[in-house]
Structure formats: C-alpha cells, structure tokens
Design a protein that fits this description.
With 292 residues, the protein is of the alpha+beta class. The protein contains six helices and seven strands; from the N terminus they run αβββββαααααββ. It is elongated, with a radius of gyration of 61 Å. The termini are far apart.
Length: 292
Amino acid sequence: MQHDDVIWSVINKGFCSFKVKTKSQKFCRNEYSLTGLCNRGSCPLANSQYATVREEKGVCFLYMKTIERAAFPGRLWEKVKLSRNYEKALQQISDNLIYWPYFIRQKCKQRFTKITQYLIRMRKLTLKRQKKLVPLSRKVEKRERRKEQKALVAAQVENAIEKELLERLKQGTYGDIYNISQTAFDKALEEEEVSSESEAEEEKEGELEEEMEEDSEAEVEYVEDFEESDISDIEDGDKFAEESTDEEDKDEEGEKGKGKWKPGMRRKRGKVEIEYEEEREPAKRQTVRLQQ
C-alpha cells in the first residue's frame, strides 16, 4: 500500500533521479511536476492525489491522479482536454478540481495561464518574417566562385567575337555569305536605328537653338551715339549767331551814343552771357542764359 510520508522521506533524504540541486534550492525534472520545484506539496511521486496541466501540440490538457487508480499504472492519470477559450478552460479546471486542495487548484490555473501566454507568443512569432541561417561549406563557395569567374570570361569572349563579326559585316570582308545568327543581326540593326534616331534628334535640337538665337538677335537693335564733331558744330553755330547779334547791338548803341554823350553821364555796360551746361542725357544738352 502507498504511503506518501514514507516515499517523501526517502526521496528527500536519499537519491531521486528527477531531483536537481543548486546552491539556492532544489528543482524537479519530472514531466508531471506542477511547479518545477522539489518540495512536499508539488512532488508528483509523494502525493497520491495530484493534478497538473500539460501542453501537447498547441492543446492544453488537465491530468489528474487519485489513490483509487494507484494499483493500475496504465490508468493512473485521467486526461481532460481544455477549451481554447481561456475563461471556459478556467471553469473546467475549477469544476474538475472542486473538492481538491486549494494549493493544487490555484497552481493548475497559474500553469494554464503561463502556457496560454507562451502559445500566443509562439503564434505571433510564426506569423512574422524570420531570418533563416543556412550553413554553407567552404568547398561549395569556392566552387561557385570559380564557376562565376569562368562564366564571366566566356561572356566577355563571346561579346568580343560578336563585335568583331559585326564590324566585318559592316566592312563587307566576307562578301554576301554570312554565318551569323539572326538575333545578332537584329541587335545590330536596332543599335543603328537607335543611334540614327538620337543623331536626328540632336540635329533638330541644334536647329531649334539656332533659330531661337536668330530671333533674339533680330529683336534687339543697337543705335549709334551722336558724334562729338556734330555736337561741337551745332554749338559753334549757335555761338556765332549770338556773337553776330551782339555786335550789331553794340554798333547801334555806339552810333546813338556818339551824338548824345555828355560829361557826367554813365556809359552803359555791355551784356555778358554765361552758359551753364547740365548733362541729364547723353544726347540732349540745355543752355541757361543770365543777363547782368
């Protein structure tokens, strides 16, 4: 007959294959352990009435052990599937463990809560994009590099041969017989058409620019300024006309004064003309006369 106190005294003081000792405390590695700690209340071997919660492939189950099934190891644990709804699952735990100790009932609920939390985190991580590290051997990397180098050299040789054949085709060294693939011939024709079109566009742009320059030159006109000789001739003519009029006035006054002059009479002073030039515009000048 099973006796829990005897079993625990043996396990606690003696050897247990599931017990792990550390500096601070002891742990239990049994898969049916409720808390993971090695003590009297949470040991699955030293308790004839025991319950725990386990997760299998994303589904939670409630495991229960009673003293009545101790004689049948194949039917020792009763397995109850819990609902995916959190509240319903907690209600199932409380219904199945209604007459059990409070410690076991509360620890089962805590364990179920932790399991549901890490299942939610796992689902979120699987939905996100993750980097996958793929190991590569050095031999494979060297082999791939050699293949790439050889392919690059072969491509350069093929391009050089194709260019040489096209140049000979243009020069007509082989006459009218050619063993060139049709695709290469078509490529050469397309390149020539593209080059001719680009040249024609450049010529049109050059012509348009020249026309625009001519129009701009036609719109702007440049006018020559007056020569200094012309301006001086105009001024000299004005001065000469003024001097002639002044001389005539003086002669008339002299003739009148010769017959009528008496001692004590003042002679009339001659008129003095002063010219001021103000430069407002280069082509226009204005004269101001002052009489005294």
